[in-house]
């Protein structure tokens, strides 16, 4: 008999069930007695090495029967901290909350025993233990602790401004004018920016960006987004199908939430690429949706192979109802740009299996390979004709990426295509409970979807800045790939687009043994050693998922040119020493 946590009914009749006996070969977490991750490739921490650590922590956290030899003591903060750690032994080093909480339980209504267990299980590698240690090292450097390096290089996350990218002038000017309309009389601001600011403020209640907007966003910005899509695809777009959000992340979660419903006693399944951007594994874990991983083909520039989609789908449908396929194009962390033929095949596969397509197209401006082009799923679907032009699609865009890199201002949009109007009404109701996305984010989005036109005063500067950023990113992507491929044991596909490189690293058996002894995944072990020795913070491939027995790291291409050169030199030097030590 499985042990059911008393009183932890999740949502409707949903329960997290923990098997009493815990053979390491079996999956540890079950969802209504079905695996949460049916036949999915491993993702950060949900793997054999680290689950043993996590299992002990989780087992300690639940009142299991006395037949188990594991401790049933209430967890301390130290144990709890091991639950949020990606992998490795329980330790307080990467605790994400204060040690003053050490006596959790007695005075707390909300404890590790009864907090929403899906959130306990959720992981998000790009802000995980490696970054926490990097932040700690930064503090140590500030305190004067001697290290073999002077600064921490955060190549862990696609945050361009954090790595020195300059903002696009018109975007910041528009923010200034909408925040402080008295600046409209200031001759330093171009007339076209003033006109944009007036048009947006005209659509803001009380003429102020301090007021709530409509829940799906300010109408003029949604209209501009629809016009932007029409220009991009050459096909009509309806502004009523555009919903703005606090970053694409928020919109993606609002969309995935719609599938959080069991059909015929089985949970919904979402197909995601492996390697993937960890927002997806995190959101699926949070909602209790089944993750169906399909591997991208590393030997074929991380292409998307339809036979692999079939394999993943057929295996998963025994335990869940596959209902969505996520495609990230251009890819994060893998940097591939899908060909039009590849997209057509994915659309045919989705149509055959009645899957809703989630096209994560936030890197649509970041194409560096001169032989590749961005093709939106919507354009391809329309141009394929019936029945494909009637398929359901949610496509996402963001101000965080592209040439803008405005990650902190937060805005994204979704275009819903062929969505059932009744479902659209449910989605609208659901987002209205959050009132509205940040209005300043929407102002920034307006520049992206309504950029200056030829002849307008801001046009030349805008084009100059946009081109400079994109050309520099293209140059850095080539520099990173070429340098990594010159290091023995590194193999990287070209970064055709996006902002990352995901090289494979051949780790020697001795390093793999040492990682095991440290209770870490081998690439996590490598990434920690790299961080401690050089101050370079990258993310281990296991945070994104990878084929068993392969090891990767993900680095961004975002540090500015001189810094990226320094980074690559230190990485090379470190790797050669590491190989010597573990060969
Ligand atoms: C593929 C992908 N989708 C979505 C996002 C989230 O973007 P936002 O900052 O708009 O939430 C990111 C961020 O890195 C991403 O890489």
Automatic annotation (TrEMBL):
The keyword Disulfide bond does not apply. Its EC number is 2.6.1.2. The keyword Transferase applies. Homodimer. Gene3D superfamilies: 1.10.287.1970, Aspartate Aminotransferase, domain 1, Type I PLP-dependent aspartate aminotransferase-like (Major domain). Belongs to the class-I pyridoxal-phosphate-dependent aminotransferase family. Alanine aminotransferase subfamily. Keywords: Aminotransferase, Pyridoxal phosphate, Transferase. GO terms for molecular function: L-alanine:2-oxoglutarate aminotransferase activity; pyridoxal phosphate binding. Signal peptide: none annotated. Residues 188-566 form the Aminotransferase class I/classII large domain. Pathway: Amino-acid degradation; L-alanine degradation via transaminase pathway; pyruvate from L-alanine: step 1/1. This is alanine transaminase. It comes from Cotesia congregata. It catalyses: L-alanine + 2-oxoglutarate = pyruvate + L-glutamate. InterPro entries: ALAT1/2-like, Aminotransferase_I/II_large, PyrdxlP-dep_Trfase, PyrdxlP-dep_Trfase_major, PyrdxlP-dep_Trfase_small. Its cofactor is pyridoxal 5'-phosphate.
